[in-house]
Design a protein that fits this description.
The chain is about 15% helix and about 25% strand. By secondary structure, the chain is of the alpha+beta class. The structure holds copper (II) ion (CU).
């Protein structure tokens, strides 16, 4: 009997080493909500295993086994929301990149009953890999315990799915090697704006999971060897992030968009690095602001970060890695 329980303990340890995770908690107003309360329960809620088939309809919300029990939560346009990671361990353990998409449910369909089909998804947030021409490649998303982002204030009011995906790239050098950790929250956006979100893509459809010919749309960011040779650049999968302008174009081809996204990301990183030091200097010389700063789980620093460098009381700005500090 003793040996049996010892065996069970070893088996449990082996399971624990698998290092997978889900994102079952939605963050609203800086607070964690209950597990699977506003996030659709995913097929992997128990085994935590990733999705690897980007052509499956499961690539939308990974919820095909879901009877549909999640509730819908009201969030104001312009507010910060997010997802909390739960797993073994409870952080984005694998090296990889992250995207957050939103899709508006048809006006005659309750979002809790909607499958997210069609050319409806636009990107609102991304955490790409950082490269420096071939010396190093780093993954700012690695190790995050929460992912937060802002719903663009120009987002029209209505019901939306918010889809987070962490694309783990540690064994992605062959087709279907990349691991997708996906979750969708159901939200009612209030106080919305008059923007036109875009470019819009479909899931499945946005990704091939393969390295395609440049002429057909260049998508090297999913099937990629991140170790050797060290990639000189990284092209983030998916379209450009919609920041809330009214000029979102609904039908840009995925390939052209992907290339643009990569170029934009590189430029952004360079520009915001200098901005970040300016912001830091300003913060130091001015009086400490009380009651301002990033909310709990919000970003408050890291290489390339140009936003708030302080946290709302009582949260402390904590370094997660070189590229990401978070209010915890
Ligand atoms: Cu894993």
């Amino acid at each position: 009997m003793k040996s049996l329980s010892a065996f069970a303990a070893v088996a449990a340890l082996v399971v624990g080493v698998s290092a997978h995770y889900t994102l079952p908690n939605f963050i609203v107003d800086g607070a964690n909500t209950s597990t699977w309360q506003y996030v659709r329960q995913t097929n992997n809620w128990q085994d935590l295993n990733p999705l690897t088939d980007v052509t499956s309809t499961d690539v939308r919300c990974y919820d095909s086994l879901e009877p549909g029990t999640a509730s819908t939560v009201s969030v104001a346009a312009g507010s910060t929301v997010g997802f909390t990671v739960v797993g073994n361990p409870s952080n984005l353990y694998h090296d990889g990149v992250l995207n957050v998409y939103m899709a508006k449910a048809p006006s005659d369909t309750d979002v809790s009953k909607w499958d997210g089909s069609g050319n409806v998804w636009f990107k609102v947030h991304e955490i790409p890999a950082v490269t420096d021409g071939g010396k190093t490649i780093t993954f700012p998303a690695t190790g995050l315990t929460q992912v937060t982002f802002t719903i663009p204030s120009a987002t029209p009011s209505g019901q939306y799915l918010i889809r987070v995906e962490h694309i783990a790239l540690h064994v992605a050098s062959s087709f279907a090697g990349a691991q997708f950790y996906i979750a969708c929250a159901q939200v009612q956006v209030t106080n919305g704006g008059t923007g036109t979100p875009g470019p819009l893509v479909a899931f499945p459809g946005a990704y091939t999971g393969n390295v395609r010919l440049k002429a057909k749309g260049y998508e090297p960011g999913i099937m990629i060897n991140i170790y050797w040779p060290i990639p000189t650049t990284y092209i983030q999968p998916g379209p450009a992030v919609w920041t809330g302008s009214g000029t979102g174009s609904g039908s840009t081809t995925a390939g052209a968009t992907t290339t643009t996204a990569g170029a934009t990301t590189t430029t952004k990183a360079t520009t915001t690095t200098s901005k970040a030091s300016t912001t830091a200097a300003t913060t130091t010389t001015s009086a400490p602001a009380s009651g301002t700063g990033a909310p709990q789980f919000g970003q408050c620093g890291g290489q390339g970060w140009a936003g708030a460098t302080t946290c709302l009381s009582p949260f402390k700005c904590t370094v997660v890695n070189t590229f990401y500090s978070q209010c915890l």
